[in-house]
Amino acid sequence: MKDLFLRKGAERRLRGGHLWVYSNEIDSRRSPLGDFAPGDPVVVRAAGGQLLGSAYMDPHALICARLYAPGRECALDEQLFTRQLGLALSLREELFDAPYYRLAYGDSDGLPGVVADRYGQYVVLQLHNSGLERYREPLRAALLSLLQPSGILLRRDSRSRGGESAPEPLEVLYGEVPEEVELQENGVRFLAPLRAGQKTGWFYDHRLSRARLAQRAAGKRVLDVYSYIGAWGLQAAAAGAASVCCVDSSAAALEAVAASAQRNGVADRVGTRRGSAAQVLADMRDAGERFEIVVLDPPAFIQRKKDLKKGIAAYRRINELALHLLQPGGLLVSASCSMHLSRAELIGALAQASARAGCGVQIIEQGGQGPDHPIHPAIPETGYLKTLFARRLPMLPE
After folding, report:
1. What three-state secondary structure class fits 266?
2. Residues 366, 302, 18, 347: what is their CA dihedral angle, to the nearest 10 degrees?
3. Residue 246 annotated to the active site
4. Can 78-177 and 182-395 be said to share one CATH topology?
5. pLDDT at site 157
6. b/e map 133-142, b = 16+ CB within 10 Å
7. Which is nearest to 129 in space by CA: 164, 153, 154, 102?
8. Are 300 and 205 in contact (CB under 8 A)?
9. Taking Cα atoms as reference points, which of 95, 153, 151, 82 lies closest to residue 121?
10. Domain segments of the chain: what residues?
11. How would you class 211 by CB atoms within 10 Å of its CB: exposed for 0-12, middle for 13-18, buried for 19 or more?
Protein backbone atom coordinates (compact mmCIF):
# COMPACT_ATOMS: atom_id res chain seq x y z
CA MET A 1 0.00 0.00 0.00
CA LYS A 2 1.43 3.34 -1.06
CA ASP A 3 1.40 6.36 1.19
CA LEU A 4 -0.92 9.27 0.41
CA PHE A 5 0.36 12.43 2.10
CA LEU A 6 -1.92 15.36 2.88
CA ARG A 7 -1.05 19.02 3.00
CA LYS A 8 -0.35 20.59 6.35
CA GLY A 9 -3.59 21.04 8.30
CA ALA A 10 -5.69 19.02 5.84
CA GLU A 11 -6.06 16.16 8.31
CA ARG A 12 -8.33 18.04 10.71
CA ARG A 13 -11.57 16.89 9.07
CA LEU A 14 -10.42 13.25 9.00
CA ARG A 15 -9.43 13.39 12.66
CA GLY A 16 -12.99 14.56 13.32
CA GLY A 17 -14.37 11.36 11.80
CA HIS A 18 -14.91 12.31 8.16
CA LEU A 19 -13.99 9.72 5.52
CA TRP A 20 -13.42 11.74 2.35
CA VAL A 21 -10.14 13.11 1.02
CA TYR A 22 -10.42 15.88 -1.57
CA SER A 23 -7.93 16.27 -4.38
CA ASN A 24 -6.91 19.78 -3.24
CA GLU A 25 -5.92 18.36 0.16
CA ILE A 26 -3.16 16.16 -1.30
CA ASP A 27 0.51 17.06 -1.10
CA SER A 28 0.99 16.69 -4.84
CA ARG A 29 4.78 16.86 -4.56
CA ARG A 30 5.03 13.84 -2.26
CA SER A 31 1.95 12.05 -3.62
CA PRO A 32 1.23 12.97 -7.26
CA LEU A 33 -2.28 11.85 -8.12
CA GLY A 34 -0.99 10.64 -11.49
CA ASP A 35 0.87 7.89 -9.64
CA PHE A 36 -2.39 6.24 -8.57
CA ALA A 37 -4.99 4.18 -10.41
CA PRO A 38 -8.70 3.86 -9.49
CA GLY A 39 -9.06 1.46 -6.59
CA ASP A 40 -5.46 1.57 -5.41
CA PRO A 41 -5.35 0.96 -1.65
CA VAL A 42 -3.35 3.61 0.19
CA VAL A 43 -2.27 4.56 3.68
CA VAL A 44 -3.38 8.15 4.30
CA ARG A 45 -0.89 10.17 6.30
CA ALA A 46 -0.83 13.68 7.72
CA ALA A 47 1.90 16.04 6.57
CA GLY A 48 4.02 14.93 9.53
CA GLY A 49 3.65 11.26 8.62
CA GLN A 50 1.05 10.30 11.24
CA LEU A 51 -1.26 7.45 10.21
CA LEU A 52 -4.82 8.58 9.50
CA GLY A 53 -6.20 5.38 8.05
CA SER A 54 -6.54 3.19 4.97
CA ALA A 55 -8.40 4.29 1.85
CA TYR A 56 -8.96 3.40 -1.77
CA MET A 57 -8.26 5.85 -4.57
CA ASP A 58 -10.45 7.50 -7.16
CA PRO A 59 -7.74 9.85 -8.45
CA HIS A 60 -9.76 11.49 -11.25
CA ALA A 61 -12.60 12.60 -8.95
CA LEU A 62 -12.92 15.57 -6.60
CA ILE A 63 -13.20 13.09 -3.71
CA CYS A 64 -9.99 11.31 -4.64
CA ALA A 65 -9.79 8.89 -1.70
CA ARG A 66 -12.29 7.34 0.69
CA LEU A 67 -11.30 5.90 4.06
CA TYR A 68 -12.56 2.41 4.80
CA ALA A 69 -10.39 1.85 7.91
CA PRO A 70 -9.90 5.09 9.90
CA GLY A 71 -6.90 5.04 12.18
CA ARG A 72 -5.44 1.76 11.00
CA GLU A 73 -3.60 0.15 8.14
CA CYS A 74 -5.33 -2.85 6.60
CA ALA A 75 -6.32 -4.31 3.26
CA LEU A 76 -9.71 -3.91 1.61
CA ASP A 77 -10.33 -7.64 1.38
CA GLU A 78 -12.92 -10.32 2.06
CA GLN A 79 -12.19 -10.25 5.78
CA LEU A 80 -12.95 -6.53 6.02
CA PHE A 81 -16.05 -6.76 3.83
CA THR A 82 -17.32 -9.68 5.92
CA ARG A 83 -16.78 -7.75 9.14
CA GLN A 84 -18.49 -4.56 7.95
CA LEU A 85 -21.36 -6.32 6.22
CA GLY A 86 -21.81 -8.52 9.30
CA LEU A 87 -22.15 -5.44 11.50
CA ALA A 88 -24.64 -3.93 9.05
CA LEU A 89 -26.61 -7.18 8.89
CA SER A 90 -26.85 -7.45 12.68
CA LEU A 91 -28.50 -4.02 12.83
CA ARG A 92 -31.03 -4.85 10.11
CA GLU A 93 -31.92 -8.22 11.62
CA GLU A 94 -32.52 -6.50 14.95
CA LEU A 95 -34.84 -3.94 13.36
CA PHE A 96 -36.74 -5.85 10.68
CA ASP A 97 -38.63 -9.13 10.79
CA ALA A 98 -38.28 -9.84 7.05
CA PRO A 99 -35.24 -9.63 4.72
CA TYR A 100 -36.30 -6.55 2.78
CA TYR A 101 -34.08 -3.57 3.53
CA ARG A 102 -30.95 -1.62 2.61
CA LEU A 103 -28.21 -3.91 3.82
CA ALA A 104 -25.25 -1.57 3.25
CA TYR A 105 -25.41 2.21 3.10
CA GLY A 106 -21.96 3.35 2.06
CA ASP A 107 -20.00 5.54 4.47
CA SER A 108 -22.50 5.07 7.29
CA ASP A 109 -21.81 1.33 7.34
CA GLY A 110 -18.05 1.66 6.91
CA LEU A 111 -18.26 0.70 3.22
CA PRO A 112 -17.71 3.95 1.30
CA GLY A 113 -19.20 3.84 -2.17
CA VAL A 114 -21.01 0.53 -1.63
CA VAL A 115 -24.80 0.25 -1.59
CA ALA A 116 -26.54 -3.11 -1.23
CA ASP A 117 -30.30 -3.68 -1.09
CA ARG A 118 -31.73 -7.02 0.01
CA TYR A 119 -34.83 -8.49 -1.61
CA GLY A 120 -35.36 -11.76 0.21
CA GLN A 121 -33.01 -14.23 -1.47
CA TYR A 122 -31.57 -11.61 -3.83
CA VAL A 123 -29.07 -8.78 -3.37
CA VAL A 124 -28.66 -5.80 -5.70
CA LEU A 125 -25.34 -3.95 -5.48
CA GLN A 126 -24.38 -0.48 -6.62
CA LEU A 127 -20.73 0.59 -6.68
CA HIS A 128 -20.65 4.37 -6.83
CA ASN A 129 -17.25 4.74 -8.44
CA SER A 130 -15.02 2.73 -10.74
CA GLY A 131 -12.33 2.29 -8.08
CA LEU A 132 -14.49 -0.35 -6.39
CA GLU A 133 -14.63 -2.57 -9.46
CA ARG A 134 -11.46 -4.43 -8.51
CA TYR A 135 -13.07 -5.44 -5.19
CA ARG A 136 -16.11 -7.16 -6.67
CA GLU A 137 -14.83 -10.65 -5.89
CA PRO A 138 -14.09 -10.19 -2.15
CA LEU A 139 -17.39 -8.31 -1.82
CA ARG A 140 -19.21 -11.12 -3.58
CA ALA A 141 -17.51 -13.72 -1.36
CA ALA A 142 -18.49 -11.83 1.80
CA LEU A 143 -22.15 -11.63 0.71
CA LEU A 144 -22.21 -15.33 -0.11
CA SER A 145 -20.71 -16.20 3.26
CA LEU A 146 -23.15 -14.07 5.24
CA LEU A 147 -26.41 -14.50 3.32
CA GLN A 148 -26.22 -17.54 1.03
CA PRO A 149 -28.37 -15.66 -1.52
CA SER A 150 -29.88 -17.14 -4.66
CA GLY A 151 -28.52 -14.30 -6.75
CA ILE A 152 -26.41 -11.14 -6.64
CA LEU A 153 -26.90 -8.42 -9.26
CA LEU A 154 -24.44 -5.56 -9.81
CA ARG A 155 -25.89 -2.35 -11.26
CA ARG A 156 -23.47 0.23 -12.62
CA ASP A 157 -26.02 2.83 -13.72
CA SER A 158 -25.72 5.05 -10.64
CA ARG A 159 -25.78 8.77 -11.48
CA SER A 160 -22.77 9.23 -9.18
CA ARG A 161 -20.62 7.38 -11.71
CA GLY A 162 -21.43 10.03 -14.31
CA GLY A 163 -20.19 9.26 -17.79
CA GLU A 164 -17.12 7.30 -16.70
CA SER A 165 -16.21 4.34 -18.85
CA ALA A 166 -17.38 1.10 -17.30
CA PRO A 167 -18.30 -2.46 -18.20
CA GLU A 168 -21.89 -3.37 -19.00
CA PRO A 169 -24.33 -1.63 -16.63
CA LEU A 170 -25.74 -4.95 -15.37
CA GLU A 171 -23.76 -7.98 -14.25
CA VAL A 172 -24.94 -11.05 -12.37
CA LEU A 173 -22.19 -11.79 -9.86
CA TYR A 174 -23.77 -14.97 -8.57
CA GLY A 175 -26.65 -17.33 -9.31
CA GLU A 176 -29.67 -16.11 -11.24
CA VAL A 177 -31.56 -12.85 -10.75
CA PRO A 178 -35.06 -12.47 -12.26
CA GLU A 179 -36.35 -9.33 -13.92
CA GLU A 180 -38.58 -8.60 -10.94
CA VAL A 181 -39.06 -9.99 -7.45
CA GLU A 182 -41.67 -9.64 -4.75
CA LEU A 183 -40.89 -7.57 -1.67
CA GLN A 184 -42.93 -6.69 1.38
CA GLU A 185 -43.10 -3.34 3.12
CA ASN A 186 -45.41 -2.50 6.00
CA GLY A 187 -47.45 -5.60 5.19
CA VAL A 188 -48.01 -4.71 1.52
CA ARG A 189 -46.57 -6.72 -1.38
CA PHE A 190 -44.90 -5.17 -4.42
CA LEU A 191 -43.15 -6.37 -7.55
CA ALA A 192 -39.79 -4.60 -7.77
CA PRO A 193 -38.07 -4.41 -11.20
CA LEU A 194 -34.49 -5.22 -10.16
CA ARG A 195 -32.98 -4.93 -13.63
CA ALA A 196 -34.90 -2.11 -15.29
CA GLY A 197 -36.19 -0.11 -12.32
CA GLN A 198 -34.81 3.03 -10.72
CA LYS A 199 -31.75 2.71 -8.42
CA THR A 200 -31.79 -0.93 -7.27
CA GLY A 201 -35.50 -1.36 -8.12
CA TRP A 202 -37.04 0.06 -4.94
CA PHE A 203 -36.66 2.87 -2.39
CA TYR A 204 -36.58 1.53 1.17
CA ASP A 205 -35.74 4.90 2.71
CA HIS A 206 -39.34 6.17 3.13
CA ARG A 207 -40.59 3.02 4.91
CA LEU A 208 -41.43 4.75 8.22
CA SER A 209 -43.07 7.79 6.63
CA ARG A 210 -45.23 5.54 4.44
CA ALA A 211 -46.36 3.70 7.57
CA ARG A 212 -47.31 7.05 9.14
CA LEU A 213 -49.33 8.00 6.10
CA ALA A 214 -51.18 4.67 6.13
CA GLN A 215 -52.43 5.48 9.63
CA ARG A 216 -54.26 8.53 8.24
CA ALA A 217 -55.45 7.14 4.89
CA ALA A 218 -58.69 5.31 5.72
CA GLY A 219 -61.62 6.71 3.75
CA LYS A 220 -59.50 9.41 2.06
CA ARG A 221 -58.97 10.31 -1.58
CA VAL A 222 -55.20 10.07 -2.15
CA LEU A 223 -53.03 11.47 -4.94
CA ASP A 224 -49.54 9.91 -5.18
CA VAL A 225 -47.35 12.13 -7.40
CA TYR A 226 -44.04 10.83 -8.81
CA SER A 227 -45.40 7.49 -7.71
CA TYR A 228 -42.85 5.22 -9.45
CA ILE A 229 -44.32 1.75 -8.71
CA GLY A 230 -46.81 2.95 -6.11
CA ALA A 231 -45.10 2.59 -2.73
CA TRP A 232 -47.06 5.42 -1.10
CA GLY A 233 -50.35 5.03 -2.91
CA LEU A 234 -50.71 1.27 -2.61
CA GLN A 235 -49.92 1.31 1.09
CA ALA A 236 -52.59 3.98 1.52
CA ALA A 237 -55.04 1.82 -0.45
CA ALA A 238 -54.21 -1.23 1.64
CA ALA A 239 -54.93 0.88 4.74
CA GLY A 240 -58.44 1.67 3.49
CA ALA A 241 -58.14 4.77 1.32
CA ALA A 242 -61.37 5.40 -0.61
CA SER A 243 -59.44 5.99 -3.84
CA VAL A 244 -55.84 6.39 -4.98
CA CYS A 245 -54.47 7.98 -8.13
CA CYS A 246 -50.80 7.32 -8.95
CA VAL A 247 -49.09 9.82 -11.27
CA ASP A 248 -45.83 9.07 -13.07
CA SER A 249 -44.23 9.74 -16.44
CA SER A 250 -43.20 6.10 -16.91
CA ALA A 251 -45.68 3.70 -18.51
CA ALA A 252 -43.68 0.72 -17.15
CA ALA A 253 -43.88 2.09 -13.61
CA LEU A 254 -47.65 2.54 -13.84
CA GLU A 255 -48.04 -0.98 -15.20
CA ALA A 256 -46.21 -2.16 -12.10
CA VAL A 257 -48.61 -0.12 -9.95
CA ALA A 258 -51.55 -1.92 -11.53
CA ALA A 259 -49.94 -5.33 -11.08
CA SER A 260 -49.16 -4.72 -7.40
CA ALA A 261 -52.65 -3.30 -6.81
CA GLN A 262 -54.09 -6.54 -8.16
CA ARG A 263 -51.67 -8.50 -5.98
CA ASN A 264 -52.96 -6.76 -2.85
CA GLY A 265 -56.64 -6.88 -3.74
CA VAL A 266 -57.05 -3.10 -4.06
CA ALA A 267 -57.21 -2.73 -7.85
CA ASP A 268 -60.79 -1.43 -7.71
CA ARG A 269 -59.63 1.63 -5.72
CA VAL A 270 -56.34 2.38 -7.51
CA GLY A 271 -56.06 4.29 -10.77
CA THR A 272 -53.09 5.71 -12.68
CA ARG A 273 -52.37 8.75 -14.76
CA ARG A 274 -49.33 9.13 -16.97
CA GLY A 275 -47.62 12.43 -17.65
CA SER A 276 -45.38 15.18 -16.37
CA ALA A 277 -46.18 15.79 -12.70
CA ALA A 278 -46.47 19.56 -13.04
CA GLN A 279 -48.73 19.31 -16.09
CA VAL A 280 -50.97 16.63 -14.58
CA LEU A 281 -51.38 18.63 -11.38
CA ALA A 282 -52.15 21.81 -13.33
CA ASP A 283 -54.76 19.95 -15.40
CA MET A 284 -56.33 18.51 -12.24
CA ARG A 285 -56.44 21.96 -10.68
CA ASP A 286 -58.14 23.42 -13.72
CA ALA A 287 -60.64 20.55 -13.73
CA GLY A 288 -61.54 21.23 -10.09
CA GLU A 289 -60.33 17.87 -8.76
CA ARG A 290 -59.69 17.70 -5.01
CA PHE A 291 -58.08 15.22 -2.62
CA GLU A 292 -57.75 14.76 1.13
CA ILE A 293 -54.12 13.61 0.83
CA VAL A 294 -51.46 14.55 -1.74
CA VAL A 295 -48.02 12.93 -1.67
CA LEU A 296 -45.05 14.58 -3.41
CA ASP A 297 -41.99 12.32 -3.57
CA PRO A 298 -40.02 13.73 -6.51
CA PRO A 299 -36.56 12.77 -7.73
CA ALA A 300 -33.73 15.01 -6.56
CA PHE A 301 -34.32 18.41 -8.15
CA ILE A 302 -30.86 19.53 -7.03
CA GLN A 303 -27.94 17.43 -8.24
CA ARG A 304 -25.23 20.04 -7.67
CA LYS A 305 -24.84 22.91 -5.22
CA LYS A 306 -24.90 25.44 -8.04
CA ASP A 307 -28.43 24.28 -8.91
CA LEU A 308 -29.78 25.15 -5.44
CA LYS A 309 -31.71 28.30 -6.39
CA LYS A 310 -33.33 26.66 -9.41
CA GLY A 311 -34.12 23.54 -7.41
CA ILE A 312 -35.80 25.46 -4.58
CA ALA A 313 -38.03 27.15 -7.18
CA ALA A 314 -38.99 23.70 -8.52
CA TYR A 315 -39.93 22.48 -5.03
CA ARG A 316 -41.92 25.66 -4.44
CA ARG A 317 -43.81 25.28 -7.72
CA ILE A 318 -44.78 21.63 -7.29
CA ASN A 319 -45.91 22.21 -3.68
CA GLU A 320 -48.01 25.17 -4.78
CA LEU A 321 -49.77 23.02 -7.37
CA ALA A 322 -50.36 20.32 -4.77
CA LEU A 323 -51.89 22.76 -2.31
CA HIS A 324 -54.43 23.86 -4.92
CA LEU A 325 -55.62 20.24 -5.09
CA LEU A 326 -56.03 19.75 -1.34
CA GLN A 327 -59.28 20.14 0.51
CA PRO A 328 -59.07 22.46 3.56
CA GLY A 329 -57.81 20.30 6.40
CA GLY A 330 -56.18 17.94 3.90
CA LEU A 331 -52.71 16.51 4.30
CA LEU A 332 -49.73 17.29 2.09
CA VAL A 333 -46.77 14.92 2.34
CA SER A 334 -43.85 16.80 0.81
CA ALA A 335 -40.49 15.05 0.49
CA SER A 336 -37.05 15.81 -0.87
CA CYS A 337 -34.12 13.45 -1.46
CA SER A 338 -31.86 16.29 -2.65
CA MET A 339 -28.68 16.06 -0.57
CA HIS A 340 -27.89 19.73 -1.17
CA LEU A 341 -31.28 20.95 0.10
CA SER A 342 -31.59 21.45 3.84
CA ARG A 343 -34.73 20.72 5.80
CA ALA A 344 -35.05 24.44 6.53
CA GLU A 345 -34.91 25.21 2.80
CA LEU A 346 -37.64 22.67 2.08
CA ILE A 347 -39.79 24.26 4.78
CA GLY A 348 -39.08 27.64 3.24
CA ALA A 349 -40.18 26.40 -0.18
CA LEU A 350 -43.40 25.11 1.37
CA ALA A 351 -44.01 28.47 3.08
CA GLN A 352 -43.58 30.27 -0.24
CA ALA A 353 -45.89 27.77 -1.92
CA SER A 354 -48.65 28.30 0.63
CA ALA A 355 -48.41 32.08 0.28
CA ARG A 356 -48.70 31.81 -3.50
CA ALA A 357 -51.59 29.35 -3.19
CA GLY A 358 -53.39 31.75 -0.85
CA CYS A 359 -53.69 29.36 2.05
CA GLY A 360 -51.94 28.53 5.30
CA VAL A 361 -50.20 25.31 6.29
CA GLN A 362 -49.24 23.68 9.55
CA ILE A 363 -46.36 21.20 9.68
CA ILE A 364 -47.71 18.55 12.02
CA GLU A 365 -45.05 15.88 11.64
CA GLN A 366 -41.64 15.44 10.08
CA GLY A 367 -39.89 12.32 8.85
CA GLY A 368 -36.63 11.14 7.37
CA GLN A 369 -34.85 8.04 6.23
CA GLY A 370 -35.36 4.75 8.04
CA PRO A 371 -32.79 3.03 10.28
CA ASP A 372 -31.46 0.94 7.39
CA HIS A 373 -30.11 4.29 6.09
CA PRO A 374 -28.13 5.33 9.19
CA ILE A 375 -26.55 8.78 9.30
CA HIS A 376 -22.81 9.18 9.76
CA PRO A 377 -22.45 11.96 12.38
CA ALA A 378 -19.41 13.48 10.66
CA ILE A 379 -20.87 13.33 7.13
CA PRO A 380 -24.10 15.36 6.94
CA GLU A 381 -24.58 14.31 3.30
CA THR A 382 -25.60 10.85 4.54
CA GLY A 383 -28.73 12.42 6.05
CA TYR A 384 -30.28 13.38 2.73
CA LEU A 385 -34.02 12.59 3.12
CA LYS A 386 -36.58 15.11 4.39
CA THR A 387 -40.34 14.58 4.71
CA LEU A 388 -42.92 17.14 5.84
CA PHE A 389 -46.49 16.26 6.84
CA ALA A 390 -48.39 19.52 6.45
CA ARG A 391 -52.08 20.30 7.06
CA ARG A 392 -53.66 22.74 4.63
CA LEU A 393 -55.59 25.55 6.28
CA PRO A 394 -58.54 27.35 4.65
CA MET A 395 -57.99 29.94 1.94
CA LEU A 396 -57.20 33.41 3.18
CA PRO A 397 -60.22 35.76 3.07
CA GLU A 398 -60.56 38.27 0.25
Report:
1. coil
2. -30
3. no
4. no
5. 81
6. eebeebbbbb
7. 164
8. no
9. 151
10. 2-70, 78-177, 182-395
11. middle
What whole-number distance in Å separates Cα of residue 365 and Cα of residue 333? 10
pLDDT grade, residue 65 (50/70/90)? very high
Distances (CA, A) of 377 to 116, 155, 230, 374, 383: 21, 28, 32, 9, 9
Catalytic residue among 64, 246, 337, 359: 337
For residue 158, what are the contacts with CB-CB under 8 A and spacing of at least 6?
Answer: 115, 126, 127, 128, 199
Model confidence pLDDT, tens digit, residues 312-347? 999 999 999 999 999 999 999 999 999 999 999 999
Burial 273-287 (b: 16+ CB within 10 A, else e): eeeebeebbeebbee
The SS3 of residue 92 is helix
Q: Which CATH architecture has domain 182-395?
A: 3-Layer(aba) Sandwich (3.40)
pLDDT of 166: 54
In degrees rounded to 5, what are phi and psi of residue 102?
-80, 115
Q: Residue 252, class by beta-carbon neighbours within 10 Å (0-12 exposed, 13-18 middle, 19+ buried)?
A: exposed
Handedness of CA 352, 357, 361, 365 (dihedral sign): negative
The set of residues, in sequence order, having a beta carbon less than 8 Å from that of 346 and lying 6+ positions away, is 315, 334, 336, 386, 388
The pLDDT tens digits for 219-240 are 999 999 999 999 999 999 999 9
- Crossing angle for the helix pair 136-147 and 78-95, nearest 10 degrees? 40
Quick: pLDDT tens for 118-137.
Answer: 999 999 999 999 899 999 99
Q: Specify the amino acid at residue 155.
A: R
CATH match of 2-70 with 2.30.130.10:
yes
- What letters, b where the CB count within 10 A reaches 16 and e where it falls short, cover 373-389? bbbbeebeebbbbbbbb
Supply the CATH classification number for the domain 78-177: 3.30.750.80
159: buried, middle or exposed (CB in 10 Å: 19+, 13-18, 0-12)? exposed
